Amino acid sequence: ASLPDPLDTAFRSILSNLEMYRPYLPDALFAQLYNTHMTRSPRKDVFVPGLASEQAALVFTDIQGSTATWEACPDGMRIGLQVHNNVIRECIAMYDGYEVKTIGDAFMVAFEHANDAVQFSLAVQEDLVHAEWPDQLLELEHCKNDAVGPWCGLRVRIGVHCGSVDVELNSLTGRYDYFGDTVNK
Asked: Strand pairing partners for 62?
């Protein structure tokens, strides 16, 4: 059922205003709003690497020792995870990446070009070193400033895979997902 014109106009205005907060809100919210009240896909205005070319650079991140950190310092890890997520999302925006998904403390991000993926990865590592970490985390041995290298706070492993991809829209989340050998390497 369609909304009366005044309500439809108001609803579209609200959706337009919500778009600026998309990185901070669950995709399921947008998928539900768009699928319920609009006919276009929620992601048609977003560049999705590999959708047209079937080639992409995929980045996978993971916090080293996260399970042990959660067990040793749950309050510090909760704050640290927010710091981590903010750094990664800021770098995604800076290098024109597409956040495919997060699973726990891991990110999967797609880029059109390998150079952008590598630059993103370097920026994430640099920004994590300079991030404001909670004191509780910095007391843990594996989060202290390391005399061997410039590490401070949560340590994040990052891998970059480049190649052919199959890209599909997930009708439940309204986000695109990536499949194929490049994802599974």
From this structure: 157
**What pLDDT shows up at residue 36?**
45
Mean pLDDT, to the nearest integer, of 111-116?
A: 93
Query: What's the CA angle centered on 92, arms 89 and 97, to 5 degrees?
Result: 140
Alpha-carbon gap, residue 126 to 119, rounded angstroms: 11
Specify whether the CB–CB gap between 152 and 129 falls below 8 A: yes
Q: What percentage of the chain reaches a pLDDT higher than 70?
A: 76
The residues near 59 (Cβ < 8 Å, ≥ 6 apart) are 97, 107, 108, 109, 110, 111, 117, 120, 121, 158, 159, 160, 161
d(C-alpha 56, C-alpha 92), whole Å: 15
Size of the chain, expressed as the number of residues it contains: 185
Residues with Cβ within 8 Å of 120's Cβ and at least 6 positions away in sequence, in order, are: 59, 91, 92, 94, 95, 97, 109, 111
Rg (CA), the chain: 19
Q: How far apart are CA 143 and CA 98, in angstroms?
A: 28
pLDDT in tens, 10-66: 766 676 666 666 666 666 665 555 554 433 334 445 678 877 778 899 999 999 999
Q: How many CA atoms lie within 13 A of 144 on its CB side?
A: 6
Q: Give the three-class secondary structure for 99.
A: strand
pTM as predicted: 0.73
